[in-house]
């Protein structure tokens, strides 16, 4: 006995997108800058304070606050825990709950600043600085797994997709989905090319494991200056490298095999993106008094050139054995395109309590709807029309005001206690409809000064929620906690 299901939607979420859509744009635009341990401990809030390598992610004028040269680096360990609540068919009660953890160590920042004393020129400039380094601006490491039972199957989606297409043309039109299912004898057509899944009226047991890896690193060079200890200004040129991969295995097992040969199937999809892009940041900091500091910065869009590679395959277990897809029908694609992320404007307020401590507030505005997909300018690849995708970006993405608050208290100018908080509204209206409509960070840490050596420790929590849809009728709600442990070392020295 077979079944026919009318699906409310075929193309949903990230599953059938295979890149070059609003999901890619949002991933590259929604960044949480990681920096030194001091920077992380204060929630990444440094726009009006400066003299800290992490300020490149906010306001390059912050380098103008440096009066001595320095070199710093850090090591972080990141733990990501994703809890999945499988809600088959959108039912209000969870069908299954599972958690996955991932841990990785890396270098989040490497920075150097060379300071020159130019006060003898009597131009009003006291110090100039040239700074260079690397910061981690996004972390894509995230793994999830969910299991549960529901009636709707991924094969129903593949069968509906293929309707009206002759079997000999499935590979041409649907190489990543229906063609694979047909080759594995998991779906079949009738004489009118209406396809049906080789299932009966029983439920399916779903199990999906998703592995996401990668991130964005920013390599920069910045020039800055100090004018009369009142105005600081700076500019930076950055090149961001992108490395992202997603692999998943989707398995379904029939609960009732009466009347059909199919017992289970595995669908595997692998996707990776690599590339890079440039941006410019301009900023200024003004000190009306020693107590009050005001900062303003503009970030241009990051202009990315990206290359996607994708492949997929499928196996189906039948009563008479395992059926695999012939290698000639396994799709492999490589595609090149461009993404422009939205520009940002950052305003900052800093309060400095002499040598005792400080508080900083950053307000960062961006409109995700300003982002755009662009066709490649590489003649080796086919041009593409992204007008439909860009309309989705414009209609679905909205503006957001990110808020970061950080503080530091000094004990005898030798021991430093720090804390911070960040609030990041979701810039995707569809994402806002699932779970909390914002992400938030909570952080804290300590610092120790030994002559010219600074040792810093921090812990930062990033908490968010989202939804993962294998297809329209199959949904998993996700709670994600990203915990970062950061150890940093900074050495200050005189440069002549």
List the helices and strands and how they pair.
Layout (H helix, E strand, L loop, with lengths): L21 H8 L7 H5 L27 E18 L9 E11 L2 E9 L7 E15 L2 E9 L3 H9 L7 H4 L4 H6 L3 E3 L5 E3 L6 E24 L3 E24 L7 E25 L5 E8 L3 E16 L2 E4 L7 E9 L3 E9 L4 E11 L4 E4 L11 H10 L2 E13 L3 E11 L3 H4 L5 E13 L2 E19 L2 E20 L3
Antiparallel strand pairs: 1-2, 1-3, 1-22, 3-4, 4-8, 5-8, 6-7, 8-9, 9-10, 10-11, 10-12, 11-15, 12-13, 12-14, 14-17, 15-16, 16-18, 18-19, 19-20, 20-21, 21-22
Instruction: Identify low-pLDDT runs.
Output: 6-17
Tell me the β content.
Answer: over 45%
| Rg calc | 26 Å
User: What shape does the CA trace take?
Assistant: elongated
Mean pLDDT figure: 90
- Which fold does the CATH topology refer to? Porin
The helix-strand sequence is HHEEEEEHHHEEEEEEEEEEEEHEEHEEE
**Protein structure class:** mainly beta
CATH homolog superfamily: Outer membrane protein transport protein (OMPP1/FadL/TodX)
Could you say what the CATH architecture is? Beta Barrel
Count of individual domains? 1
């Amino acid at each position: 006995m077979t079944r026919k299901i009318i699906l409310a939607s075929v193309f949903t979420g990230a599953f059938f997108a295979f890149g070059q859509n609003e999901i890619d744009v949002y991933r590259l635009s929604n960044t949480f800058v990681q920096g030194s341990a001091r920077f992380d401990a204060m929630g990444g809030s440094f726009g009006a304070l400066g003299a800290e390598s992490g300020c490149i992610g906010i306001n390059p004028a912050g380098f103008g606050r440096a009066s001595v040269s320095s070199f710093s680096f850090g090591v972080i360990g990141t733990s990501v825990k994703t809890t999945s609540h499988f809600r088959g068919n959108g039912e209000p009660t969870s069908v299954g709950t599972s958690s996955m953890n991932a841990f990785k160590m890396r270098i989040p920042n490497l920075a150097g600043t060379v300071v020159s004393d130019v006060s003898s020129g009597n131009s009003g400039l006291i110090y100039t600085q040239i700074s260079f380094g690397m910061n981690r601006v996004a972390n894509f490491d995230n793994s999830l797994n969910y299991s549960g039972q529901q009636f709707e199957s991924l094969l129903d989606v593949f069968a509906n997709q293929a309707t009206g297409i002759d079997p000999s043309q499935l590979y041409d039109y649907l190489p990543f989905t229906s063609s694979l299912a047909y080759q594995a004898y998991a779906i079949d057509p009738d004489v009118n090319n209406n396809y049906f899944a080789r299932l009966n009226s029983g439920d399916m047991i779903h199990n999906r494991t998703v592995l996401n890896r990668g991130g964005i690193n920013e390599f920069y060079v910045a020039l800055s200056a100090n004018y009369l200890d009142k105005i600081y200004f700076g500019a930076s040129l950055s090149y961001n490298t992108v490395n992202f991969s997603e692999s998943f295995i989707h398995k379904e097992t029939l609960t009732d095999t009466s009347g059909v040969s199919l017992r289970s199937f595995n669908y595997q999809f692998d996707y990776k993106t690599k590339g890079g892009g440039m941006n410019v940041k301009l900023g200024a900091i003004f000190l009306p008094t020693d107590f009050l500091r005001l900062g303003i910065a503009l970030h241009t869009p990051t202009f990315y050139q990206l290359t996607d590679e994708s492949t997929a395959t499928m196996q189906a277990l039948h009563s008479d054995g395992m059926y695999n897809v012939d290698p000639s029908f396994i799709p492999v694609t490589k595609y090149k395109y461009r993404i422009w992320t939205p520009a940002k404007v950052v305003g900052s307020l800093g309060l400095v309590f002499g040598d005792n401590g400080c508080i900083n507030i950053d307000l960062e505005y961006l409109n995700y709807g300003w982002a755009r997909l662009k066709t490649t300018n590489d003649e080796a690849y086919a041009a593409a029309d992204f007008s439909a995708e860009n309309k989705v970006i414009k209609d679905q993405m909205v503006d957001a005001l990110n808020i970061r608050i950080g503080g530091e208290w000094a004990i005898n100018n030798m021991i430093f206690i720090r804390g911070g908080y960040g609030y990041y509204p979701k810039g995707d209206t569809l994402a806002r409809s699932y779970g909390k409509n914002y992400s938030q960070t909570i952080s804290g840490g300590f610092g120790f000064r030994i002559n010219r050596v600074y040792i810093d420790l921090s812990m930062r929590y990033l908490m968010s929620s989202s939804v993962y849809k294998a297809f329209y009728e199959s949904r998993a709600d996700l709670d994600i906690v990203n915990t970062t442990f950061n150890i940093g070392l900074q050495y200050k020295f005189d440069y002549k």
